[in-house]
Amino acid sequence: MKKNRTYPFTAIIGQESMKMGLILNVIDPKIGGVLVFGEKGTGKSTAVRAIANLLPEIDVVKDCPFRCDPNDPGSLCENCREKVKNGETLAIVKDKMRVVDLPVSATEDRVVGSLDIEEAIQHGKKKFDLGVLAQANRGILYVDEINLLDDHIVDLLLDSAAMGVNTVEREGISFSHPAQFILVGTMNPEEGELRPQLLDRFGFSVDIKGIKDPRQRIDIVKRRGAFEADPHEFMHEYQDAETQLSDQIVKARERLPEVTIDDDLLLTNAKIAIALEVDGHRGDLTLMKAARAMAAYKDHQAVDKEDIREVTEMVFLHRLKSLPFETTRKFNMAMVNTIIDDNGATVQDKKKAEK
């Protein structure tokens, strides 16, 4: 049996925005993933693997290469659908959420998979070699230095992440399979940017830096040393905190469909997007999803202005217009706070008048 040597999520020091971005995406994967700006060695890959390990096992169809969800008939692959159609009962097993890495050198076939045309022509059967998108279904797809990937490959990733389906077409033969995953990309803006059209399709972005506080750096070294010396004992030390956070995330997922957001707060969302001069409406939609996920995480039945305040920068940072040669984006949180508080005061006055 393979031993689990994943560093605990709750043992990670600092990087609160990145951790919250991951948590909210796990609560609602429709948010659209996280793009992490920042330097190397700041715990990005550690946090991604830790959040996946934190979550409870999921139901998967036994022996299905796509790890289909037996509880969601609409998302089944062709083989699983055929079994159901023939009256077969899908066997169910438990499995952990996967983290799949995509190398910068990946080709299109490596990403989307490939069809064996000869097999299809000679025997009339679709033989599909799994790509990264198939392996990442119902998991997390982690792409380090995503800005160095070919734009076409990034397009494929974002299309599949948004649609939840990967379709491969070769020589008039088509094959589709579920590809529902949380996309986490990292990049250093000094090494090249992503096109604005691609940036906009990420749900969140966070800008992280190495921790400068000497005491926190000492704690990081001590914790890492303790983990490497005795992983089992270190993980046991954080087991209660891990279980508590896992339970909170699971309950938030269950609560999410019931969380409401009133029209006054939707107006706040719109005013923020307009003030930040953001193109399109994707930011508005993501802000609504993020605020609802935050409310669910806090065990609230309805979104309040603090939920909006806490997620706004993650939603809009990468959507801001940048000047030529500008490598960092400046986010005007003071202006956002003014909009939230002014509109929040209006909402409170309205509620008092209704009473």
CATH architecture title of the largest domain: 3-Layer(aba) Sandwich
Strand order of the largest sheet: 4-7-10-1-11
Rg, alpha carbons: 22 Å
Largest sheet: 5 strands, parallel
Helix content: 40-55%
> How many β-strands, per DSSP?
11
Any low-confidence stretches, pLDDT <50, length ≥5? none
Proportion of residues in extended strands? 5-15%
Give me the strand/helix succession: HEHEHEEHEHEHEHEEEHEHHHHHHH
Q: Can you tell me the CATH class of the largest domain?
A: Alpha Beta
The CATH topology of the largest domain is given as Rossmann fold
Q: TL;DR of this structure?
A:
This protein has 355 residues and is of the alpha/beta class. It folds into two domains: 9-55 and 96-223, Rossmann fold (3-Layer(aba) Sandwich), CATH 3.40.50; 258-354, Magnesium chelatase subunit I, C-Terminal domain (Helicase, Ruva Protein, domain 3, Orthogonal Bundle), CATH 1.10.8.80.
